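Morning, I've got a small favour to ask if you have a moment. It would help a lot if you went through both lines with me. Thanks so much in advance, here it is.

***
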Amino acid sequence: MAEEKLERKLGLFPATNIVVANMIGAGIFTTSGLLMAELHNPLLMVILWAVGGIIALCGALSYGELGAAMPGAGGEYLFLSRLYSPIYGFLSGWVSFIVGFSAPIAASALGFSEYFTRAVPGLVNWLQANGFMGQEITKKTLAVAVILIFTFIHYRGIKYGTRIQNALTILKILLIVVLLAGGFASGKGDFSNFHKGGSPGSGLAGWKTIGLSLMWIMFAYSGWNASTYLGAEIKNPKRNLPGSLIYGTFIVMALYVGINILYVYGIDPESMEGVISIGGLAMGNLFGKSAEILFSILISFALFSSLSAFIIIGPRVYYSMAKDGLFFKMAGRIHKRFQVPSNSILLQALIAVLLVLSGTFEQVLTYMGFALGIFPVLSVIGIWKLRKTQPDALRIKGFPIPQIIYITAGVMILVLSFMESPLESSIAILTVVVGVPAYFLFKRNSKKASGEQEPA
């Protein structure tokens, strides 16, 4: 079994923290301005954030049942391998390896550097004026440094790493609560902003825009399944794993809807359109320039939490794949002292650093939502098979309503997004297709290795 060497050390609190930290990342602090540029309607935008939360919650309820029945490492990789065939599990892990974890790590690190250098432009100007490095190189250097620091932290063990993770997550939630409480208490915003703006268009064009917007929103909600990747390290997984998914998703849904209401309260729709550093702009409007600088710094550090969570989770997928002979063998090694998949952690860091340095991460992020939207739908469909094959497994109430909602919404988002952005969606599909020959190559090499060992 792939999970036998990983120890169960995580309770409900750290597992829920990992879900919350994984969900609250660059998306909520950068996406709303881009959404407004497409939707032109603040009320519709907030409604879509709530709809996205409901979809994520339906997914969390479904994964709670899957995770309790299969409490191992790897998330979708484990579920799809056992429910259908190892090739489906491999393809989900393949996509996760390329775009699911390394790219968000790179994006969070670059998001940090963007917010930080915006808040402290004097540092960038000083470095450039003294001939050390230009603006872009400074941003990339900061991003790479952050990736390496957190890779080192999590290399030293899951218990040590989750202590840092817990503190960062609590600080991030406190930041958002302070932002919400202070923002609404200031009284300098205007709720009439909800009645301003236009519409995303009529007919099919409007629905395609809504579909693409929901895909971006679901990217911001991605991570609602985070604790399933650590199933082999969670204590009492039948209780704590579903609980962490449901509680974590509820918390994030409430925070996301609240913070988007604050954005609209603090910024009129026209001024919001296309703005990436939306949190800083909202605080600037409500409290002045000094608040914009302060909150830009705080948001930049808040991104550490999501980056840290991705660094914890991703290597557990590669570890499980390697243990099953479907990935590089060295990725399955556990560090003797720190009891973590150390080589997988280093491999992921390398890919993330390359994405930061290459500058192609934005293109990866464009199609990431589509690529990562395929396999959760297949996993949720598998619950019908799970209930037939494991009648004694945990049953979460509500079946099949949450599953039907998640599957229907997931398929509709994929179809509408493909119609709106065929190029990026096609590249995402191609990424999956390329994984098919990779699967058979790894499988053949695994058979050869086992064949060589048998005579001895």
User: Anything to note?
Assistant: The longest helix spans residues 289-323. The mean pLDDT is 84. The radius of gyration is 22 Å. Residues 25 and 306 are 5 Å apart (CA to CA).
